[in-house]
Amino acid sequence: PEGPGICMPYGFIADDGKTAYSIKNSLRFTSTPNVIFRIVTASAKDPWDTKPTIGTYNTDYRPGYDGSEWRKTKFIEPTYIGDRLAGMDGWLLEPKPDSGEQERAWFGLAHTGGTFSPMIAIQVFTFQQGTDDLTELTPPPERVLPRWKELSKTIRPMLE
Is residue 117 part of a domain? Predict the structure, then answer.
């Protein structure tokens, strides 16, 4: 594509600076359907002042859980959004040994851009086995994030 905009896995969003936009897309890998990546973009002149956290809830950042069954850890995972390094900040709930639980849950958020360049945010959500047609347990971040990191390098904010 030519001209300013954002080149994403789904195509190109032109941004000549005259029209403000805010777009939200979701994707998931067929091999790990329990994990949803939400991509949020907004132009540098976005009049709605779209935040990287749009569409998330307090429970996404502070999940309720039974501490006798689960162990919560926080993580910061380096990831690229195009050629810009961003820290994916998140948490992981894993079952404690002998709890009888098998399922895990995790959440992550990373973003770049802002005042003078398009904002691009990545939000990661997980869904437990049995939700809709999900038949497998939620995979750990280390099984999913390497594949995401390769894809995220293809996102390109094109400023000129």
Answer: yes
Counting the structural domains of the chain, the total is: 1
Q: Which domain holds residue 145?
A: 5-57+70-158
SS3 state of residue 106? strand
Q: Output the pTM of the full model.
A: 0.85
Flag whether 62 is in a domain: no
pLDDT by residue, tens only, the chain of 160 residues: 677 777 766 667 766 666 677 777 888 999 999 999 998 888 877 778 888 998 899 889 999 899 999 999 999 999 999 888 999 999 999 999 999 999 999 999 999 987 777 888 999 999 999 999 999 999 999 999 999 999 888 887 665 5
Q: Interior CA angle at 24 toward 76 and 92, to 5°?
A: 25
Q: Residue written as tokens 């990831």?
A: 79
